[in-house]
Amino acid sequence: MKFSSLVLSALVLSSAAAAPAYALDFKSVGAAPAILYDAPSEKGRRVSIAPRGMPVEVVLTYGDWSKVRDASGALSWVQSKALAAKRNVVVSAPNAKIHAAADEASATVFSADKNVLLELTDSTPVSGWVKVKHRDGQSGFIKTAEVWGD
């Protein structure tokens, strides 16, 4: 009885150790629009063109290519050199409020409609909020539940 529970414990531990740890790796399309493909090759079918600044989640890197997920959940391939480390987020809520502090009771600095692109100025969430900046220069805090790409 002891032997079988010991073996079972060893199997559980070894399978847990073998499971990869996944961390979300978000990047943005660089200064120029990027072509998205259905395969990691320029010979693949062109799926769409990603506008500059568009946030993507890097799911896998294969040589000079990255498999990415966009805000809609679609997967495609892009040349890794087309991605930048600069982080952007896209508003996923209709009429999101950006506050002066990471607090619902703080003053509203501005609001942003769904699909508006915001620069992530601090990628460390504070109690469910992230600091963002609009291209017009306004900055503040938005709830992480109201953006994609953080």
Automatic annotation (TrEMBL):
Organism for this UniProt entry: Herbaspirillum rhizosphaerae
The entry's protein name is SH3 domain-containing protein
Q: State the superkingdom.
A: Bacteria
Q: Where is the signal peptide?
A: 1-23
Q: Which UniProt keyword terms apply here?
A: Signal
Q: Which Gene3D superfamilies match?
A: SH3 Domains
